[in-house]
């Protein structure tokens, strides 16, 4: 496979731009996204699932920068949202509300009202309590709430970290299978609720089709039972979680997945919703950070960067592995095992541990790969650090998608 951010004569490029030139213009640390890689991933899914009536509802939590959202609108995407903030972003970016689904175990009344008023396609409801509150909100607003119930199929998918497994019976997500039928019956009796579909999401960074096959069989079985009781369904939502390559190998084969999913969904006569996040944007992003110091302490060598867990928390939060490469290779450099760490006052502030790396020197730039998803969106201001800038490259065209935060931005909203 061709990896994004290719190297030409030892130097890393994003589209038709040298990554080092982008940092010279926009500073470090810097997130760089390649718009063409995003488009290619989106088209790949669209083509793979062409045999069924499909809505690709991009999972906005993965990367919610407006520039990226607008580009996805232009490609025809819908959106999977989890908060009023994401609803606001998506409406601002130009998504059609009829192409939005709203997930999450803790939707508030205010969020329900806003999404109902906007006219979203469906609330993916995660509990009996939420369904009841949604019914009350719909009555007050005077508009039936479109719903799908999120089933917890009690399937534990093999993801790299327990925090990204959501389909097991012991997680907070979804409605236990033995309660699903009763809740559909209850909803069908309410004029305040309009049943639209059935939903499942089993986890994130899944590389095999098999757990999806089990989850799909499960919900299609339920869908048949629901319809047998005269309750109509429009769609099955299979959630997201389609894995990408963090180590330079292959991500998930969405084509293999489609071979399993498309015929079954087509036979059921349902519309298919998929909620890919990471698959669309993950490989399209790098975090570029600058080496401040190379420090030897005890038996270890620490490469201290100007970016760390405040810019990218995945390594410390999920023990996430990201390939790290020099932006400009030093052919003469030796390779050593190092810890790549940030400047934040936490031992857990690292980008890589015990990693064999071409030894960099102070001032060198390193690129942390596959950071287009769950990168900037999880950035924080901890240690009063301004958030980095984000740029989108499309061939030779460069768009500053978010300016670097200023010191005044850090104080915004404080009343002291
Ligand atoms: C309900 C739901 N849908 C979709 C996603 C997107 O997952 P991914 O970015 O791995 O595709 C998530 C991730 O947490 C999710 O919880």
What does this molecule look like?
There is one protein chain. The model has no long low-confidence stretch (mean pLDDT 96). The chain has 12 helices and 21 strands. 30% of the residues lie in helices and 26% in strands. The protein folds into 2 domains: 7-33 and 282-411, Lyase, Ornithine Decarboxylase, Chain A, domain 1 (Beta Barrel); 104-274, TIM Barrel (Alpha-Beta Barrel), CATH 3.20.20.10. By secondary structure, it is an alpha/beta fold. It is elongated, with a radius of gyration of 23 Å. The strands form 3 sheets. Strands 4, 14, 15, 16, 17, 18, 19, 20 and 21 form a 9-stranded mixed β-sheet that branches. Bound molecules: pyridoxal-5'-phosphate. Residues 59, 62, 80, 103, 166, 201, 204-205, 239-242, 275-279, 373 line the site of pyridoxal-5'-phosphate.
Question: How many separate structural domains?
Answer: 2
Helix fraction? 25-40%
| CATH-defined fold name of the largest domain | TIM Barrel
The distinct bound ligands, ions and cofactors come out as: pyridoxal-5'-phosphate
Corresponding CATH architecture of the largest domain: Alpha-Beta Barrel
Specify the CATH class of the largest domain: Alpha Beta
Mean pLDDT over the full residue set: 96
Oligomer: single chain
State which percent range the strand residues make up.
25-35%
Shape: elongated
Tally the helices. Answer: 12
Number of β-strand runs: 21
Distance between the termini: 54 Å
Instruction: Let me know the CATH homologous superfamily of the largest domain.
Output: Alanine racemase
Largest sheet: 9 strands, mixed
Spans of 5+ residues with little confidence (pLDDT < 50)?
A: none
Structural category is alpha/beta
Radius of gyration over all CA atoms, rounded: 23 Å
